[in-house]
Design a protein that fits this description.
With about 400 residues, this protein is an alpha+beta fold. The strands form three sheets. Strands 1-3-2-12-11-10-9 form a seven-stranded antiparallel sheet, with helices on both faces. A hairpin with a 4-residue loop joins strand 11 and strand 12. It is globular, with a radius of gyration of 20 Å.
Length: about 400
C-alpha cells in the first residue's frame, strides 16, 4: 500500500482517491499531481518511489542521489509535456512585438527556406503543419543535443507534404524547429529564455537544460518498453490501420517521426537532461507545471514578477493559444488530433477537462494543461513510463476526479 503524501482542499478528495488508486490499479511507480484554481494551490499530492528498483540500474551515478521515496520537491523529465512550456515562448515574443506569427520562418532563419520551405509560416511550425516531422537521415543522440546538427538537418530537410496543407505531429523535430527559431529571434537559447523570463520570475522548479546541481532531485524513469506501438486513442485515419500497425512499418511517417533520433537516447543520461530539447527534454515538478499553466490564464498572487501580476498571457494571446489551427487526420499519429498554436486541444485523442482546455501530454504518461473556464492549472508527472502518447489511464483517472470534484462543488 503506497503512502500518499500531501493535501487536498475540501471537496477535492476524489483526486486523492484516484491518485492512490493509480498505484493499485495501474502499476504507478512514483508520481505527483498538483492543481491550481484561481491562482491558489488546492491539490498537492505525491507518493511512490523516486527510483524504481526493477530497471537494472539504481546506482547514485545513474539516478542522482540514489534510491528513495518520491518527495514533494522531486522533479521528473516530462517528455512532450515540454512542448507546452516551450510554445509559450514564441507566443510571448509575439505578445511583446518581437515575432510575427504570420511571418515566414525564413525571415528570421534564412537557411530554413531550402528545399521548398520558403513559405512556411511561424504559425505552421507551432501547429505541426510545417511538413518536416521526419529526417531522411536520423540524428544520433549526440548530434541531437549538440545545438548544431538538429537545426542544420531540419533546415535542409524537404517537406513530406506541402507546408500548411495538412498536419502531423512533429514528435522530435519540434525541438530543432522551435529552438532555432527562438535563438534567431532573441539571441538566447530557448532554455535560457524560459529560465530568465518564465521560471525565475514565477519561482518554478522547471528547466530546459537541467543544471548539474539539481540532478539529485530528478526521479529516474522506469525501464521504457521497446518502441513498438505508441498508443493513441481517437478516431482513426484509416479504418484498418492502427497506430501500432503504422509504427511497425519502417517507412511510415509514424515510425520515422519517432525515430528522428536513432537510437533512442537514454533519458536518464545527465548529458541528455542538460540538453535543451523543447520537444521532449524538460524537467519539472508537478507544482511547477501546474503553476505555469495557472499563470498562463490568470495572475498568481505570490509570483515574483511585476508583469501583469504574474499572468503570462494577455487575453488576446490566450485566445490565440487555444484557437484551433489543426484538426482531423494526423499524418503522423494516424488518429484525429487537434492543435492550437503549440498546444493540444481537448478532444478524443487528448481528453482534457473541457472544451476550452489546452495543454500537452507526454509520451509515457505525464500531462499538464489549463482550463480558463474552470480557472484550473493541472499537472501530473510520473516516472512509471507506460506505452502511449496520449490519454494515459492514470492521467485520465485524475482528470475525471477533478471534473467530479468541480461538478459536486457547483451542484
Amino acid at each position: 500500500m503506497v503512502d500518499v503524501q500531501g493535501t487536498v482542499a475540501d471537496g477535492f478528495e476524489p483526486v486523492r482517491d484516484a491518485f492512490a488508486a493509480n498505484f493499485a490499479r495501474h502499476g504507478e511507480r512514483g508520481a505527483a499531481v498538483v492543481l491550481y484554481r484561481e491562482g491558489e494551490k488546492i491539490v498537492d499530492l505525491w507518493g511512490g518511489t523516486k527510483t524504481p528498483d526493477n530497471d537494472g540500474d539504481n546506482s547514485p551515478e545513474a539516478s542522482g542521489d540514489g534510491p528513495g521515496p518520491w518527495a514533494q520537491d522531486t522533479a521528473q523529465i516530462v517528455r512532450s509535456v515540454t512542448k507546452g512550456v516551450a510554445a509559450a515562448v514564441p507566443l510571448l515574443l509575439h505578445q511583446r512585438g518581437q515575432l510575427d506569427l504570420d511571418g515566414r520562418v525564413s525571415t528570421y532563419w534564412p537557411e530554413f527556406k531550402a528545399a521548398g520551405k520558403e513559405r512556411v509560416l511561424v504559425r505552421h511550425l507551432l501547429a505541426h503543419r510545417t511538413g518536416v516531422p521526419v529526417l531522411d537521415t536520423p540524428l544520433t543522440p549526440a548530434e541531437a543535443i549538440d545545438g548544431i546538427s538538429g537545426p542544420r538537418a531540419v533546415a535542409a530537410q524537404q517537406p513530406v507534404w506541402e507546408p500548411g496543407t495538412a498536419h502531423g505531429y512533429h514528435a522530435q523535430t519540434y525541438s530543432w524547429l522551435l529552438g532555432e527559431l527562438v535563438r534567431r529571434v532573441t539571441g538566447r537559447t530557448i532554455g535560457r529564455w524560459i529560465a530568465e523570463e518564465i521560471a525565475r520570475p514565477l519561482g518554478l522548479d522547471l528547466w530546459l537544460g537541467l543544471p548539474e546541481e539539481q540532478r539529485g532531485r530528478v526521479g529516474r524513469i522506469a525501464a521504457v518498453e521497446a518502441l513498438s506501438a505508441p498508443a493513441v486513442q481517437g478516431p482513426r485515419l484509416r479504418p484498418k490501420r492502427s497506430v501500432a500497425e503504422a509504427y511497425r512499418d519502417p517507412e511510415s511517417l509514424t515510425r520515422r517521426a519517432f525515430a528522428a533520433i536513432t537510437p533512442l537516447p537514454d533519458e536518464n543520461d545527465p548529458a541528455y537532461l542538460a540538453a535543451e530539447l523543447p520537444a521532449s527534454g524538460g524537467v519539472a515538478t508537478a507544482e511547477a507545471l501546474a503553476r505555469f499553466y495557472a499563470a498562463l490564464i490568470g495572475p498568481l498572487p505570490s509570483a515574483r514578477t511585476a508583469r501583469s501580476g504574474g499572468r503570462l498571457f494577455a487575453p488576446a494571446t490566450l485566445t490565440m493559444a487555444r484557437t484551433e489551427e489543426s484538426a482531423g487526420p494526423d499524418r503522423v499519429l494516424v488518429v484525429g488530433t487537434r492543435f492550437g498554436l503549440g498546444y493540444m486541444l481537448h478532444g478524443p485523442a487528448c481528453p482534457l477537462l473541457g472544451p476550452g482546455s489546452f495543454g500537452h501530454p507526454g509520451r509515457g504518461g505525464s500531462l499538464a494543461f489549463a482550463d480558463p473556464e474552470a480557472r484550473i492549472g493541472f499537472a501530473y508527472v510520473t516516472n512509471g513510463m507506460r506505452r502511449g502518447v496520449t490519454a494515459d489511464p492514470r492521467a485520465q483517472a485524475l482528470v475525471r476526479a477533478v471534473r467530479t470534484s468541480l461538478a459536486a462543488r457547483e451542484a
